[in-house]
Amino acid sequence: MKTLSILSTKLSAWVLHLIGRGGSMPGSIGCKVDANILSKLKFNGPVILVTGTNGKTSTANMITDLFEKAGYNVISNRKGDNLKAGIVTTLLTHAKLNGEIKANAVVLECDELNVRHILPFIPVTDFVVNNFFRDQLDRAREMEQLIDSIEKVLPAYRGRMILNANDPNVVRLNLVAKNASFSCFGMDENKYSVTTTKEASEGKFCPKCGARLEYSYYQYSHIGKFHCSKCDFQTPEMDICLKDIDLDKETFSSDGIHYKSPYEGMYSMYNCAVVLNVAKNYGISQDCVKSVFSHAPQPAGRNETFTSKEQTCILNLVKNPTGANEVMKVIEKDDSDKTIVIVLNDREQDGTDVSWIYDTFFEKIMKDSTKEIICTGLRANDMALRIYYGGYKGPLSVVDTLDIAVKAALATKRTTYSIATYTALLPTRNAIKKEMGL
């Protein structure tokens, strides 16, 4: 059954490639042929699994680049097919018929709810957890339920866990992973740290004793330095601690060496901290790390900038309060006159519950320099109502058609920021490129 599973996956992937398509269907076929195919594969070298609410794709891709620059032959699900079927597709299409993976390093991005379907069945050497935030309540449910699904498979895990030391919801995993080793990354207090926060926060209570957590400072949301008011649960010592944070220059230091982040925002620097942590664990040189940071591709919709003549448009994906708040901070830094287009959909991939927009500080972009806000998408009216309730005094409109909304925004000749949910991202990107002639 193993050989047939691998063969059928390879064949279906080849057929899809011939007709110009990809996707995770081949992995679904492989699993139907042999439900236990993952446990029958043979791996050579590190197997790194990356999960968390925000930053999975960027982090996994930079780790992949890191190993490639260090001379490894790496396979990875770079395109973000991070559910079980997508991961099986990646592995089986790069496997010999005897089940041996044709690489000496494997880096896999994994959806949080799918960790339980992957971690127990392949020999993961490093389990990376970036963060946990509220996300898509209709699919992921409450965050406590999501974390519980991961905790249930950790007691038997014997590899290394690479954890965000500034997220209590991540640090709590070491309470149940008794057979694992740990390596932690995080960020030191800096000029952007705050002692109080109004952002949606899920790290309020100790997972060990239930008492309230106390914070020395916050970086964003519930990310910061914490300790329990009653027991010994606290921010652990960090193997990698970022210092000298400069969000204007996008620079930081670690172990006395200065780096430039490839992406904007403090949250992106945490992704860089993971790369430094992995490099340290595997003895990969800082030259390789710097090369990864300097050549990291800009993911579609992650502060993606389009320019044409005198027109500039910046596109960002939003999908939950914490990620959206970080996008708001990036836009807030720009004091030039701007037009903002917000595309809010509620399809299954977006999350059908859009109440998260009321936990997002859209007020940060309601500045005098924001000359107009245009709302479109399936839930455009809901978005416009949120902006209205936020107290925005400038021109606010609802446009039924995405192309018309983008055209109207670009016609202002101001810098345009487009903010789109998951299913709206590619259509928005295409509308921008079409209108700008790119």
TrEMBL record:
Family: Belongs to the MurCDEF family. MurT subfamily.
Domain Lipid II isoglutaminyl synthase (glutamine-hydrolyzing) subunit MurT C-terminal: residue ranges: 317-425
Occurrences of domain Mur ligase central (ranges): 50-202
Reactions mediated catalytically: beta-D-GlcNAc-(1->4)-Mur2Ac(oyl-L-Ala-gamma-D-O-P-Glu-L-Lys-D-Ala-D-Ala)-di-trans,octa-cis-undecaprenyl diphosphate + NH4(+) = beta-D-GlcNAc-(1->4)-Mur2Ac(oyl-L-Ala-D-isoglutaminyl-L-Lys-D-Ala-D-Ala)-di-trans,octa-cis-undecaprenyl diphosphate + phosphate + H(+); beta-D-GlcNAc-(1->4)-Mur2Ac(oyl-L-Ala-gamma-D-Glu-L-Lys-D-Ala-D-Ala)-di-trans,octa-cis-undecaprenyl diphosphate + ATP = beta-D-GlcNAc-(1->4)-Mur2Ac(oyl-L-Ala-gamma-D-O-P-Glu-L-Lys-D-Ala-D-Ala)-di-trans,octa-cis-undecaprenyl diphosphate + ADP; beta-D-GlcNAc-(1->4)-Mur2Ac(oyl-L-Ala-gamma-D-Glu-L-Lys-D-Ala-D-Ala)-di-trans,octa-cis-undecaprenyl diphosphate + L-glutamine + ATP + H2O = beta-D-GlcNAc-(1->4)-Mur2Ac(oyl-L-Ala-D-isoglutaminyl-L-Lys-D-Ala-D-Ala)-di-trans,octa-cis-undecaprenyl diphosphate + L-glutamate + ADP + phosphate + H(+)
Keyword terms: ATP-binding, Cell shape, Cell wall biogenesis/degradation, Ligase, Metal-binding, Nucleotide-binding, Peptidoglycan synthesis, Zinc
Function per UniProt: The lipid II isoglutaminyl synthase complex catalyzes the formation of alpha-D-isoglutamine in the cell wall lipid II stem peptide. The MurT subunit catalyzes the ATP-dependent amidation of D-glutamate residue of lipid II, converting it to an isoglutamine residue.
SUPFAM superfamilies per UniProt: MurD-like peptide ligases, catalytic domain (SSF53623)
Entries under InterPro entries matching the protein: Lipid_II_synth_MurT, Mur-like_cat_sf, Mur_ligase_cen, MurT_C
Binding-site list for Zn(2+): C206, C209, C228, C231
Top EC group: ligase
Subunit structure: Forms a heterodimer with GatD.
Top-rank lineage group of the source organism: Bacteria
Enzyme Commission code: 6.3.5.13
Protein name: Lipid II isoglutaminyl synthase (glutamine-hydrolyzing) subunit MurT
Active site: D353
Pathway connected to this protein: Cell wall biogenesis; peptidoglycan biosynthesis
Organism whose genome encodes this protein: Holdemanella hominis
